[in-house]
Amino acid sequence: MIKKTLVALSAIALSAGTLSACGSDGGGDAAADGGGSDDTITMGFAQVGAESGWRTANTKNIQEAAAEAGVDLKFSDAQQKQENQIKAIRSYIQQKVDVIAFSPVVETGWDAVLQEAKRANIPVILTDRAVDSEDTSLYKTFLGSDFVEEGKKAGQWLVDNAADADVDGDGDINVVELQGTTGAAPAIDRKEGFEEVIAANGEISISQSQTGDFTRDGGKQVMEAFLQSEDDIDVVFAHNDDMGLGAIEAIEAAGLVPGEDVKIITIDAVKDGMTALSEGKINFIVECSPLLGPQLMDLAEKVLAGEEVPTRVVTEETTFTPEQAAEVLAERQY
Ligand code: AHR
Fold first, then answer.
1. Whose Cα sits closest to atom 3 in ligand 1?
2. What is the reported pTM?
3. Domain spans in the chain, listed from the N-terminal domain onward
């Protein structure tokens, strides 16, 4: 069980310094006194929602890791609304939790609530997604994937397989893009990385790009509209598996064969996506790991003990072809 290290004198001294600098009355050093009666770590976690298979796996992993580490986890689901996440964070501040972790639904608009957490001397750890703030003192560290790199890997596969991806053989590779939630770090960064790499091949271009909000339904609806508005789509780049799976439904409903008549590239590598990949309905998946729980608990313990932690912890990830998916599917955890 993780216990707060009350003997970490340097951490306590630092906390007190921050409090007086902020003009606090000194009554609420949550990081040092834990706001509770024993020394078990209390973590408030403000989750984005349950929009995708990835998110469900991430929530389960965080809950299991907290139980394993003996962390008292207060969990909230914001249903993909920033105002709900802000409310949850304010409630954790009021409850004087020891540490707050959250995965910001969008990148901007967090400074005010993070300043409140800082004034209350409650450290914040970003997991999965980053915030776009100039004040990096508002959080201790950011644990999660390199989304730009994920977009680059998706784009590189397309550049490397361009001849095969020109499905209608007209010399142009027409890509449609299913973007994640508007304003979310993975949507912004994956788009950026993908576009940067495909720019190397003048035959590849994106004809349409719209958000499917990282959901299967959203992916299906947007893909239906894409298919109605043009008939020479060669490739779908979906920012996650769920939207790619929704696109497969729309492609099949239009009488086309996903993976053959339209090539599909997605990101995540959750079990449903990997199954579709092993069946040849998806052509390539870039992995984004949701298994952040154990590292998050470890970082929380270190931060509360006053230990130095890296400001950025990047998750290790790979990519999968249909053959590679078939090999690992049986033991895929999520
Ligand atoms: O932030 C990670 C992304 O959010 C995943 O790729 C997606 O499936 C989820 O909803």
1. 186
2. 0.89
3. 2-145+290-317, 147-288
